[in-house]
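Reviewer 2 asked us to include a model.

Predict the structure of this chain.
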Amino acid sequence: MAQQINAKQKVESSIESGFEWYWGKLVLNTVSFNIPLLRCLTRIRDDILSVWNLNDPEESLKGVDFNTEMFKLIKPLLQKSGSPPRDTLEKSNGVADLAGKISPGLEKALAYAGLLGVVANVLLDRIEESPVTALCLGAYVVDLTWILYHLFLTTLNHDPPRPVSKALVSFTFQNYQQNCAEAVHDRVREIAYKETLHPVKEIEALVKMELGLEA
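Predicted model (structure tokens):
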């Protein structure tokens, strides 16, 4: 029971940390919008991973495979973003620019996820206050929170120090992709594209419903 309460608190902290940059800072104009979406996603990932603080001796949650799977989950949303295509030269320059700004591991993750073709259109562009941005960030936060919640609960069934393994991470991603991701993204899209006074609360309620937690 105590661990379930702890998990619920971690979920709430994940949502709060994940949306601090968008609805907490960007929309309220406390920080500049002159940052790329990719950087924002990376910051969200690091902040939420810190919330869960899982024992990860293999660094399964920091490697190329993990980043690849996270990018694959939001790939359909990026491809349907509605951004006008850029010409080949500009897109190539965008990818080259990306390579100079991010770590080799993250660049590989984007390539493995098949995202280099849309990087110049979406991920490299500066973040903006829009439903598309809210959708991508919202889906990323929900996806990551769902994955980490289930990793957390699964490791509780093992004796300390309860390590996370690459095999467990892979299985958890597969389970989410096959059973939940599309429906969850549809719900996040509904929230992102409507006028609401409390979008973070609505997404928090969505996550708790998906995880079977009390609202």
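The chain has a mean pLDDT of 78. The chain has one domain: 2-211. We have added this to the supplementary material.
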